[in-house]
């Protein structure tokens, strides 16, 4: 599986960006997917995740109500719509794929863990200025 992330850039606080992550080399409809981010000097942290059906998603508390994750199986692409951006959202954003098709109970327990994801995109930089 190969992932290609795009859509990052520089924006002022309060602005919006939409990140895209295209997947190739597998069956997109079978993937649980997620976005993580990593700021300089910090560990990679969970941002948002979506189940393979696209019907269930979850967010970090820090982005809840501002970010939205969605999945377009026709385009093999997962999106992260980011609104009301803040300087603390500045980071490299990574998309990730979990192909294991875990049951719902396990997904809810593990979707925030970087170790659950086998494939990662190359990252796209988001910079929010105050």
Topology at a glance:
Layout: E1 2-6, E2 9-12, E3 17-24, E4 32-38, E5 45-50, E6 57-59, E7 67-72, E8 77-82, E9 91-98, H1 104-110, E10 119-120, E11 124-129
| Helix percentage | under 10%
Main sheet attributes: strand count, strand direction, barrel closure: 7 strands, mixed
Approximate shape? globular
Unreliable runs:
none
The total of beta strands comes to: 11
Radius of gyration, CA atoms, in whole angstroms? 14 Å
Q: How many distinct helices?
A: 1
Arithmetic mean pLDDT: 95
The amount of beta strand, in percent, is over 45%
Ends apart, CA distance between termini: 37 Å
| Oligomer status | single chain
**SSE order, as H and E?**
EEEEEEEEEHEE
Structural class designation:
mainly beta
Quick summary of this structure?
This protein has 130 residues and is mainly beta. The chain contains 1 helix and 11 strands, in the order E-E-E-E-E-E-E-E-E-H-E-E.
Give an overview in words.
This protein is mainly β. The chain has one helix and eleven strands. Strands 2, 4, 5, 6, 9, 10 and 11 form a seven-stranded mixed beta sheet that branches. Strands 1-3-8-7 form a four-stranded antiparallel beta sheet, with no helix packed on it. A hairpin with a 6-residue loop joins strand 5 (about 45-50) and strand 6 (about 55-60). The longest helix is centred in the last third of the chain and has 7 residues, at about 105-110.
List keywords for this structure.
130 residues, mainly beta, 1 helix
């Amino acid at each position: 599986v190969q992932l290609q992330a795009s859509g990052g850039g520089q924006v002022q606080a309060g602005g919006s960006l939409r990140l895209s992550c295209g997947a190739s080399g597998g069956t997109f409809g079978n993937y649980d997917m997620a976005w993580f981010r990593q700021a300089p000097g910090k560990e990679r942290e969970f941002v948002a995740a979506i189940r393979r059906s696209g019907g269930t998603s979850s967010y970090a508390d820090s982005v809840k109500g501002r970010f939205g994750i969605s999945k377009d199986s026709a385009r093999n692409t997962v999106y992260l719509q980011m609104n009301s951006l803040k300087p603390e959202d500045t980071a490299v954003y990574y998309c990730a794929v979990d192909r294991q098709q875990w049951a719902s109970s396990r997904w809810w327990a593990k979707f925030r863990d970087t170790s659950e994801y086998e494939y990662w995109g190359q990252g796209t930089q988001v910079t929010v200025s105050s």
